[in-house]
Amino acid sequence: MSACQFGAPPGATDQGKDIAGLYHLMFWIAIGVGAIVLGLIVYAVLRFRRRNEDLPKQTRYHVPLEVTYTVIPILIVLFIFAATYRVEHRVDHVAHNPGLVVDATAFQWQWRFTYPQYRITLIGTPTTYPTFEVPVGETVRIQLRAQDVIHAFYVPQFLFKRDAIPGKLNTFDFRVPEPGTFAGECAEFCGLNHATMGFFVKAVPRDEFDQWVKEQQSKSNATPTPGATSGSTPTSTPGGGPVTPTVIAGNSG
């Protein structure tokens, strides 16, 4: 029972927490409606169970009751609509001045993450999962693109998925309040090696992020070597494979 939890897992981002709250609200509404329906069924079975051959009293019209069971579901649906709109509005909100911008490009079959203001690019391969770092507590802007076919940016712990569509720029923000490393993947079947499209998001304090940026920029004068290991990359992948991302600094312009 210790592994059980109620509803959706808590989101790792501010936006994910909003989504988790909406999930929990929906579950409580479903539980309430189910309890009322089950209670009425049990009441009808016990109160009007057959005692003899006489036909129970029949009621053809009961206007107040009919109005009640029509209006209540309408109010519930309107409340759910308002709550969903409010959460989606917050989740889809794009800040005017994000703390960090990352260009994420999906291709068959991996990811490329570019930091325009720092001139850093991380490129993965089917056997090499990249880790892109972000500062804790700051708004991160993702500019999502697809190079060939439809892909999807999905981080389960963020409770968030967004499609990457060729020829279309999708933009979204997230904010991670606590340090951590979160596995991501492509959630849209995109071909033979779809299962190898993994990546990691690592949230670190601002000073650690600045140090990581300096380390990546220090490689700008070196010849980029495919398979070069990034010091911020975990040693395991969502699929259990090795992780050694290609890092290119100073060549993202």
How would you explain this protein's 3D organization?
This protein is α+β, with helices and mostly antiparallel strands and 253 residues long. The chain folds into 2 domains: 14-92, Helix Hairpins (Orthogonal Bundle); 100-249, Sandwich (Immunoglobulin-like), CATH 2.60.40.420. It is 30% helix and 26% strand. It has helices at residues 14-47, 63-92, 206-217; strands spanning 100-107, 110-115, 120-123, 131-135, 139-146, 151-155, 160-164, 170-175, 180-186, 198-204, 246-249. It has a 6-stranded mixed beta sheet with strand order 8-5-1-2-3-11, with helices on one face. The protein has a 5-stranded mixed beta sheet with strand order 4-10-9-6-7. The longest helix has 34 residues, at 14-47. The N and C termini lie far apart (52 Å).
For the biggest β-sheet, the strand order reads: 8-5-1-2-3-11
The helix fraction, in percent, is: 25-40%
User: How many structural domains?
Assistant: 2
Mean of all residue-level pLDDT scores: 85
> Please, what is the CATH homologous superfamily of the largest domain?
Cupredoxins -  blue copper proteins
CATH topology of the largest domain: Immunoglobulin-like
Helix count equals 3
Distance between the termini: 52 Å
Major beta sheet, specifics? 6 strands, mixed
Q: Note the beta-strand portion.
A: 25-35%
User: Which spans of ≥5 residues are poorly predicted at pLDDT below 50?
Assistant: 225-246, 248-253
